[in-house]
């Protein structure tokens, strides 16, 4: 009697443990969705449905370092990291570029990961200047896009990424800007912002990119 | 006689150690100035960045350019440089706001880091060096 009682208890404890373990396995870490949001009501199959609409990066079109037009569609099936810089920047940009090189190195060849660097020096940083910069940095291929656009377009989209950028003759190099690296998901939603001059935060960015990629392949870890 | 010799010896050592103290002081001050004025491009370890910004590890270059280094720091450089057998042509902006004293700190730090062994680079040397810059242009 006593033995069977112990057995039952053991069985219950084991079951509870197994259930807990199973639950933990399914609990996948997710990144927050940043930016503005509002609730929208629409009709789906005759039913009224209310859903959250998140801030997204709007459509854009820029010229890249190879003088080719690059639009938002280029990033449709990938997550990407966006930043704002300029090639003659004497302050934070070199460190940001150096850190983005680390990101590129980690995900080199992964078609689901891209980098998008916008030049805020729209007068000087023409495509060939961007190409020369990319070459000197040691960036080849098309995974890392350096783009040139009109002042209105570049500064306009910086707002959408929630990055401050402004021409300012008092700032080193003539531009005042923030060194954020912005992580964007496949639905163009902002999922993280990291200080591109801080090694720890850049490591966090890469860890978060793994989490974000896993969102699109929920079963990959169990394979 | 022996006493005099001993005094002489002691004073030499005293001088040396005073120079050493000065060097250490310049080095420490230079380190923080380097981080805020130079490290972004040239790297914390003086490693440079790709073919954009040259490393500061070419000891022969640093030694050979000792006289012109103050001018480069203060006024920048816009010529092609060959460093570690690689050509660099990105223009370097000057740091015009730096005083000769601060440049001495920076060059003592750079001159005794990353494999370089220039010893103390004092303020007098910088003041003299800056007179030779052709920055009237």
Characterization of this structure:
The complex is a heterodimer of chains A (223) and B (137). Chain A has helices spanning 2-26, 93-107, 127-137, 151-160, 199-216, and strands spanning 37-44, 47-54, 61-64, 69-71, 79-85, 113-119, 144-148, 165-167, 175-177, 180-184, 190-195. Chain A has 223 residues and is an alpha+beta fold. Chain A has a single domain (57-222), classed as Glutaredoxin, CATH 3.40.30. Chain A has a seven-stranded mixed β-sheet, with helices on one face. In chain A, strand 5 (79-85), helix 2 (93-107) and strand 6 (113-119) form a beta-alpha-beta unit. The relative contact order of chain A is 0.17. Chain B is mostly helical. Chain B has one domain: Cytochrome c-like domain (Cytochrome Bc1 Complex, Chain D, domain 2, Orthogonal Bundle), CATH 1.10.760.10. Chain B contains six helices and four strands, in the order H-H-H-H-E-E-E-E-H-H. Chain B has helices spanning 2-37, 39-42, 59-64, 69-75, 100-110, 123-131, and strands at residues 76-77, 81-83, 86-88, 92-93. In chain B, the strands form two sheets. A two-stranded antiparallel sheet of chain B has the order 1-4. In chain B, a hairpin with a 2-residue loop joins strand 2 (81-83) and strand 3 (86-88). In chain B, helix 1 packs across helix 5 (100-110), helix 4 packs across helix 5 (100-110) and helix 4 (69-75) crosses helix 6 (123-131). The model of chain B has no long low-confidence stretch (mean pLDDT 90).
Proportion of residues in helical segments of chain B: 40-55%
- What's the CATH H-level superfamily name of chain B? Cytochrome c-like domain
What is Rg of chain A?
A: 23 Å
Give the number of domains of chain B: 1
Order of helices and strands of chain B: HHHHEEEEHH
How would a textbook summarize the main sheet of chain B?
2 strands, antiparallel
Query: Largest interface, counted with CB-CB under 8 A?
Result: A-B, 16 and 11 residues
């Amino acid at each position: 009697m006593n033995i069977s009682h112990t057995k039952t208890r053991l069985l219950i404890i084991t079951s509870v443990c197994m259930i807990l373990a199973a639950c933990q396995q399914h609990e996948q870490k997710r990144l927050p969705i940043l930016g503005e949001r509002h609730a929208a009501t629409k009709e789906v199959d005759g039913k009224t449905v209310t859903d959250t609409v998140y801030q997204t990066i709007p459509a854009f079109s820029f010229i890249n370092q190879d003088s080719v037009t690059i639009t938002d569609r280029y990033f449709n099936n990938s997550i990407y990291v966006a930043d704002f810089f300029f090639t003659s920047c004497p302050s934070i940009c070199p460190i940001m570029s150096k850190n983005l090189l680390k990101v590129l190195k980690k995900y080199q060849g992964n078609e689901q990961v891209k980098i998008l660097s916008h030049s805020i020096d729209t007068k000087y940083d023409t495509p060939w200047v961007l190409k020369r910069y990319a070459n000197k940095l040691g960036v080849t291929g098309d995974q890392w896009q350096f783009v040139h656009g009109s002042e209105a377009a570049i500064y306009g989209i910086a707002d959408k990424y929630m990055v401050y950028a402004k021409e300012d003759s008092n700032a080193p190099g003539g531009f005042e800007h923030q060194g954020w690296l912005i992580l964007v998901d496949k639905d163009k939603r902002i999922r993280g912002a990291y200080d591109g001059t801080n090694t720890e935060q850049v490591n966090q960015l890469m860890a978060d990119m793994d989490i974000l990629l896993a969102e699109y392949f929920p079963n990959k870890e169990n394979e | 006689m022996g006493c005099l010799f001993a005094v002489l010896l002691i004073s030499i050592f005293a001088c040396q150690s005073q120079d050493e103290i000065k060097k250490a002081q310049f080095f420490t001050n230079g380190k923080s100035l380097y981080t805020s004025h130079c490290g972004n491009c040239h790297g914390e370890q003086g490693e440079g960045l790709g073919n954009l910004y040259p490393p500061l590890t070419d000891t022969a270059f640093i030694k050979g350019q000792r006289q012109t280094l103050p001018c480069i720091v203060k006024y920048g450089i816009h010529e092609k440089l060959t460093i570690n057998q690689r050509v660099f042509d990105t223009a370097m902006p000057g740091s015009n706001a730096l005083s000769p004293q601060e440049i001495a700190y920076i060059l003592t730090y750079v001159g005794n880091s990353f494999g370089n062994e220039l010893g103390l680079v004092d303020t007098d040397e910088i003041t003299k060096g800056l007179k030779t810059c052709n920055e009237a242009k």
